[in-house]
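Tokens for chain A. Residues wanted.
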């Protein structure tokens, strides 16, 4: 069977030409449509989640090296700070130890009275033991006996020894309840009996015309005259004809770590 081949002339306005026109027309429509604000917004909303996710992963991946770098730096810095803190604590401990030792040496060397006085450490004081008491680090073997005077410095009398053992002694302060100390007013030389009232307080009663004022110093005798109390307040009771004198110890017991004991020579 023989087929005749039909020859056709090329048409300028054929299918390809119309396809090109349609493509250009479609592009123009897209240009005008997507050039408007609402079209751009619409497209942006559609692709925003994908763009956001991409930014997130990109930013996260970019931060990974920085994270490990910062973590290592923090670990190193933390180790250095820990070492500095430990060294600081050790330095503070050394300082406090030297400060305490220096304080004791200054008290012993600078405040020790001249004469036959015994220096001893205070190993316990209120509130570790009952108020108005001191527990001392020497006893009879160190030359301390009952009745000996206890001084805080060269001229400050704070109490007496009331109990001793071989290596320890207990002192009752002038403020101990029931303790009586005989002395005189330094300003007038008028004799005065003072009584311990407990809790660091000392008091007495005198006639209402007795010459005594706030701030007067009360002295007590030993081998020397010692300061035993200071007048802090005066309460007058005119109907009874007396006035109550309130006094305090002449030293801050909480800051005393060393005392000096004056042995009493027995006849």
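Reply:
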């Amino acid at each position: 069977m023989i087929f005749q081949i039909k020859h056709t002339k090329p048409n300028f306005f054929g299918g390809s030409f119309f396809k090109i026109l349609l493509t250009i027309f479609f592009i123009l429509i897209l240009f005008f449509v997507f050039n408007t604000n609402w079209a751009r917004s619409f497209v942006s909303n559609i692709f925003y989640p994908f763009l956001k996710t991409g930014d997130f992963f990109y930013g996260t991946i970019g931060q990974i090296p920085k994270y490990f770098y910062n973590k290592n730096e923090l670990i190193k810095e933390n180790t250095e700070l820990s070492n500095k803190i430990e060294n600081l604590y050790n330095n503070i401990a050394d300082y406090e130890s030297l400060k305490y030792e220096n304080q004791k040496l200054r008290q012993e060397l600078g405040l020790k009275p001249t004469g036959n006085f015994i220096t001893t450490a205070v190993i316990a004081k209120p509130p570790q033991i009952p108020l108005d008491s001191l527990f001392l680090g020497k006893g009879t073997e160190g030359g301390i006996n009952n009745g000996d005077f206890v001084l805080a410095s060269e001229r400050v009398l704070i109490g007496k020894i009331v109990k001793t053992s071989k290596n320890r002694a207990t002192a009752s302060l002038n403020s101990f309840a029931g303790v009586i100390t005989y002395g005189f007013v330094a300003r007038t030389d008028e004799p005065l009996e003072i009584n311990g009232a407990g809790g660091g307080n000392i008091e007495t009663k005198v006639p209402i015309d007795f010459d005594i004022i706030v701030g007067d110093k009360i002295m007590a005798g030993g081998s020397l005259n010692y300061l035993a109390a200071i007048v802090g307040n005066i309460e007058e009771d005119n109907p009874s004809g007396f006035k109550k004198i309130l006094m305090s110890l002449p030293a801050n017991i909480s800051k005393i770590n060393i005392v000096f004991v004056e042995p009493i020579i027995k006849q």
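The chain has a mean pLDDT of 77. The CA atoms of residues 152 and 173 lie 11 Å apart.
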